[in-house]
Amino acid sequence: MNSRNAASRPASASRRALSLLALLALSGSALAGCGSRDDDGGGDAASSSSPSASATPSVDATPAPATSPAGTGGAAATGPALCTADMLSGTVEDIPGGASAGGVARALVLTNTSGGGACTMMGYPGVSYLDAAGQQVGAAAGRVDDVAAAPVTLEPGQSAAAELRETVAQKYGECQVQDTASLLVYPPEDTTSLTVSYPSTGCLNGDIELLQVGALQAR
Fold first, then answer.
1. Percent of the chain with pLDDT over 90
2. Rounded CA separation 219/13 (Å)
3. Does pLDDT of 53 surpass 70?
């Protein structure tokens, strides 16, 4: 009886050991399965966040280049061109009550006849007598400072006028009287001139100033 019990103990111990190993193996498989599910779940979470990340528009951190201001410009915006002699025509007009014992006051009128758009000018025109041959007679006109100079913009067909004062030539004994046929007129800030028909009498003596001109004003 004792020998059989002794022989059965090792067999029982072996079975228990095998059972324990089997249980450990099953537990390991279960843990591995759980770990696999956690990994899968983590992967799903990561993949589910990817579309929203990729749908976010990219932002260019580089600032956009500044644009040039429109109209401050310079043809920017630039204003009307300077009125030059080739854009103008001129006349001399009587002024009511302009005559006096020593001379006469008239208006020198300059008109934009270019047809190419507005032009602008400011200040005093240069004025001299011309004879029939187109030669200057006597001194150029002085200035009348009664009216302040201001910018004048002339659209095609519009005019500006300057007061033109003329002293009688015969008042001066050293005048050397000379008939004149026209006026040589330089618009302000222009180096080219136009001729305005105006028969009168000048002095060959260049020390005698018969003409005076005022600043151009809009009409």
1. 59
2. 130
3. no
